[in-house]
Specification:
491 residues; alpha+beta; FAD/NAD(P)-binding domain; protoporphyrinogen ix oxidase, domain 3; 3 domains; 7-stranded mixed sheet; 22 strands; 36% helix; binds flavin-adenine dinucleotide
Length: 491
């Protein structure tokens, strides 16, 4: 029977195991697998802690539903009833501008305005900045098809102010990255496509809006589809989570996995099997930890952060090891603070999902999510929960501060930006050292090269957030594609 070893028990490794199992069941071709995780629990960066009445996320607090693979996984797990939409009646996001929280005007799709009036009336961008953004309608598309940085792309199409006030703080929030180095093709390829297709981002958004309107009209005019058609019939907000937090996703996968799961075991080496042995397996995976042993296997899926795989394959594929090690990472931390609602409400109404901060404001935090407004079920009616982000591009040193210093810093920033002086009743810090892979310009070409290098060791596959998307839906898609590839190779 074909055996597959998956290294890493984050969402990428878990989804790989789940879709391998599903594929085996669907096709009737039996396989066995071992998922190896160095820590004592599954989930990787997905960590939810329930402390008193607070549901606190250490890593991701949601996933985007516009990319279908996250929702698809939920459907395949049979857990769509657990999905939680954002509280969209309070869907305001703010940007700190000259020390004041200014609402993001309605109708923005990432950095692109799709509604004229809210955009024209918003104080977020100066009149000159708005005129510059409008020039997007007339600037011809770039002919050069090579990758460019997000900053160059945005400056070219929408101007410096749009980059500073919208692009940079949003990217700092999502990718904790420097937009001057971040690859547009690895992060927002759809914008490049829209530019090429429509010649203008604003025009493209108008077309998309019109198409959506027409689709809605058609749906309204047609007979409702049967819920048994395999598709999700319920509508979800742009971001979704679970009632019990993101760890519900991990538990749901874990419950359904029937293969071997080896926790507290670190993979130290992957190498070809010594041909004098007669196991019939082509690869060996050496583990240390709770159970030090060598697994004889047919295929290995690397689903751990690229950099951590450097020592694991250095002796077998040194060029690939170096390429994996060359992917840059930044460090971040999240600081969650829970308050009594009555202590906060006189100081701030928390009417929104939170705010992001442009670098030009020179603050110490990147962003703050008003978690208990963004999602219900994050605490009870008597409390509120806020989560601030520190670190990332150029500010990684802050992650190394002591817990006490980080809490003081977060509270000071919340005082300066929101006027909050109340004392939190609960505080929790999660540090993510080298936790955020940086997709620098040219990243996708380098990934393609790495995949070719991996192919030199038949049976070796790369997946996970280091390669083709850091978001949970991207990791799920990567896992799905890897399973398809394995199946093709088996055939
Ligand atoms: C603070 C924060 C907020 C985020 N917010 C969001 C969000 O809101 N939405 C979203 O979609 N994404 C978000 N992300 C990104 C997303 O959470 C991650 O990209 C994704 O969870 C990574 O999954 P992964 O499986 O690739 O890697 P990981 O989760 O890092 O898992 C890799 C696993 O491999 C294990 N491992 C490493 N080396 C070895 C070894 N030698 N042997 C065995 N095991 C090993 C590790 O212990 C780990 O468990 C966020 C990330 C962070 C840090």
């Amino acid at each position: 029977m074909t055996h597959i070893t998956i290294i890493g028990g984050g969402i990428a490794g878990l989804a790989t195991a789940f879709y391998l199992q599903k594929k085996a069941n669907d096709t009737g071709r039996p396989i066995s697998y071992t998922l190896v995780e160095q820590s004592g629990c599954l989930g990787g960066k997905i960590i939810t802690e329930t402390v008193d009445n607070f549901t606190i996320e250490g890593g991701p607090d949601s996933f985007i539903t516009q990319k279908p693979w996250g929702l698809r996984l939920c459907r395949d797990l049979g857990m769509t009833d657990r999905l939680l939409s954002t509280n969209d009646t309070q869907r305001n996001v703010y940007v700190l501008r000259s020390g004041r929280l200014v609402p993001f005007p309605a109708g923005y799709r990432l950095a692109i305005p799709t509604q004229f009036l809210p955009f024209a009336l918003s104080p977020l961008i100066s009149p000159l900045g708005k005129i510059r953004m409008g020039l997007d309608l007339f600037i011809p598309p770039r002919m050069d098809k090579t990758d460019e940085s997000l900053a160059d792309f945005m400056r070219r199409r929408l101007g410096q102010e749009a980059l500073d006030m919208i692009g940079e703080p949003l990217m700092a929030g999502i990718y904790t990255a420097d937009p001057e180095r971040l690859s547009i093709q690895s992060t927002f390829p759809m914008f490049v496509g829209l530019e090429q297709k429509h010649g203008s981002l604003i025009k493209a958004m108008q077309v998309a809006k019109w198409n959506m309107y027409r689709k809605k009209q058609q749906v309204n005019g047609s007979t409702p589809q049967s819920p048994q058609n395999g598709k999700l019939t319920r509508k979800f907000s742009i971001f979704a989570s679970f009632q019990g937090g993101m760890s519900e996703l991990v538990s749901a996968i874990e419950t359904q996995l029937t293969g071997e799961i080896q926790l507290n075991s670190r993979v130290t080496t992957i190498r070809p099997t010594n041909s004098s042995e007669s196991t019939g397996k082509r690869l060996e995976v050496v583990l240390t930890g709770d159970e030090s042993r060598t697994i004889q296997t047919d295929n290995v899926v690397l689903a751990a952060p690229a950099r951590t795989m450097f020592p694991v394959i250095q002796s077998t594929l040194p060029t690939l090891a170096t390429a994996l090690n060359d992917i840059r990472y930044t460090s971040t931390a999240t600081i969650s603070l829970g308050y009594r609602r009555q202590d906060i409400i006189s100081q701030h109404d928390l009417n929104g999902f939170g705010f992001v901060i442009p670098k030009s404001e020179q603050r110490h935090i990147l962003a703050c999510t008003w978690s208990s407004t963004k999602f219900h079920h994050r605490t009870d009616d008597e409390h509120v929960l806020l989560r601030t982000f520190v670190g990332g591009n150029g500010r990684e040193h802050l992650v190394g501060l002591s817990d006490e210093a980080l809490i003081t810093l977060a509270r000071m920033e919340l005082f300066i930006t929101m006027g909050i002086t109340a004392t939190p009743v609960i505080q929790r810090i999660f540090r993510w050292n080298n936790g955020a892979p940086q997709y620098d310009v040219g990243h996708l070409n380098r990934v393609a090269d790495m995949e070719q290098m991996a192919a030199q060791l038949p049976g070796l596959y790369l997946t996970g957030s280091s390669f083709r998307g850091i978001g949970i839906p991207d990791c799920v898609k990567g896992a799905f594609d890897t399973v398809e590839q394995i199946w093709q190779d088996l055939a």
